[in-house]
Amino acid sequence: MVIKIPIQFIMQKHRIIGIMSGTSLDGVDLAYCEFEESGNSHTFNIGACETVAYTDSWLSQLNALPGASALEYAETHTRYGRYLGGLVSKFVRSHNLEVDFVASHGHTIFHNPENHFTAQIGEGAALAAACGLPVVSDFRTGDVAAGGQGAPLVPIGDQFLFPDYDYCLNLGGFANISMQVKGERLAFDISPANIILNYFAAQKGKAYDKDGAIAAAGRTDDNLLQTLNNLGYYQMEPPKSLGREWIEKEIIPLIRLFNISTEDAACTFCEHIAMQIGAVTDNNPLKRMLITGGGAFNTYLVSRIAANTRVQLHIPDADIVNYKEAIIFAYLGLLRMHQQPNCLASVTGANHNVSGGAIYLP
Questions:
Q1: Average pLDDT for residues 188-205, to the nearest whole number?
Q2: What DSSP element (H or E) covers 347?
Q3: Given a cut of 50, is residue 41 above it in pLDDT?
Q4: Who's near 76: CB < 8 A, 6+ residues apart?
Q5: Which residues lie closer than 8 Å to 313 by C-beta, 6 or more apart?
Q6: How buried is 344 (Cβ within 10 angstroms: 0-12 exposed, 13-18 middle, 19+ buried)?
Q7: How large is the average pLDDT for residues 352-358?
Q8: At what angle are helices 299-308 and 262-279 packed, to 10 degrees?
Q9: What is the pLDDT of residue 63?
Q10: How far apart are CA 352 and CA 250, in angstroms?
Q11: Residues 6+ apart with CB under 8 A from 272
């Protein structure tokens, strides 16, 4: 797939592996991307893509890490970096790739920009040593240090890689959206998404709700729906972002209070997600929304989004749906290597645009 990118700096061909691990813990996404100069613009090509599912051991460790000791956190930070480096090495060998560098998001353990910190594990030095390639990592902390939310980071990629869409909606652990408003890129987390839907699926012994079948079997609980929609976060103006901590404090206890079936809770939460998405669009039927992330495969959720907004919904091919964030982190790494801004103050609320990411050489 080739997409035109209006980048304003000169570069030769770059071959980058983007790595992403989302809050829904589906696995580690790896995407091989090529950027090449073409006249006054650049082309972007998606090559090999792969998702490596987490073992039960890694799932257990990552879920438990927020409550672990400082020593356990530090050890896991390094070990996870080496783990990612090993995945990169295997990926390169399997697909016979020539790679210039790696751009890794890592896995978020803490995200609390109100208290000026965010933490993604996957130590860049360990990753670089393990795969033998330069690495850009730790993309979020620079923006948080500059007063920003440190999230979302993909909007600059939405702006330049997917310019044909008025809205770019990602249905990952959280539903987030980006859009161009009066010449500025705006973006924010809308609501929890797969992180909660997977919680319901786990109650049925499943990793996720395939096609939204669990939710489709339930009924909307109007009282729960109204309570969810009245949460303070939805009254806030962007920039704003969500983290696991907010889920544990606000969402899980609230759902438990209502003591309804898993099916009804999942159905209600899908309606909640769809209503919040509808609330942030202008319902102009001429506008187009690109939907990516694992939730794009949840046919019930997408049907509810369609019922709550009049914009045209577009679900791209599976590689874009599954790997868009990994692809964009490759792009963020490219911008960082050229000391260009990759975190937009208009999105995060920082006091200036930031070129985020630490660079490690093997």
A1: 96
A2: helix 345-348
A3: no
A4: 61, 65, 68, 121
A5: 289, 291, 302, 305, 306
A6: buried
A7: 97
A8: 40
A9: 93
A10: 31
A11: 191, 225, 228, 229
- In the 3-class helix/strand/coil scheme, how is 71-139 assigned residue by residue? HHHHHHHHHHHHHHHHHHHHHHHHHCCCCCEEEECCEEEEEEHHHCEEEEECCHHHHHHHHCCCEEECC
> Do the strands 288-292 and 312-314 form a parallel or antiparallel pair, or are they unpaired?
parallel
* Sequence-separated contacts (24+) of 233-239 with Cβ below 8 Å: 234/191, 234/276, 234/279, 238/186, 238/187, 238/188, 238/349, 239/148, 239/149, 239/188, 239/347, 239/348, 239/349
Contact yes or no for 298/304 (Cβ under 8 A): no
The whole model's pTM is what?
0.86
Q: Could you write out the DSSP letters of every residue in 161-203? A: H-TT-SEEEEESSEEEEEEEETTEEEEEEEEE-HHHHHHHHHH
Share the mean pLDDT of the chain.
Answer: 92
Give the chain's radius of gyration (CA, Å): 20
Contact assessment for residue 218 and residue 265, using Cβ atoms and an 8 Å cutoff:
yes
Find all residues with CB under 8 Å of 305, minimum gap 6, and list them.
273, 274, 277, 278, 291, 313
For residue 40, pLDDT beyond 50? no
Which of 275, 232, 18 shows the shortest CA–CA distance to 139?
18
Residue tagged 């929304």 (tokens): 289
Residue 311 CA to residue 169 CA, distance in Å, equals 12
Tell me 312's DSSP state.
Answer: E
- Give the bridge partners for 64, in sequence order: none
**What would the two tokens of residue 249 be?**
């404090």
Distance CA 31, CA 325 (A): 9
If one counts every other C-beta atom within 10 angstroms of the C-beta of residue 342, the result is: 28
CA distances from 176 to 97, 190, 255, 277, 325 (A): 32, 5, 22, 9, 12
Burial class (CB in 10 A: 0-12, 13-18, 19+), 300: buried
Quick check: 7 and 41 in contact, CB under 8 A?
Answer: yes
Q: What is the mean pLDDT of residues 167-177?
A: 95
Residue matched to tokens 């987490």: 54
Spatial separation of the C-alpha atoms in residues 292 and 168, rounded to whole Å:
8
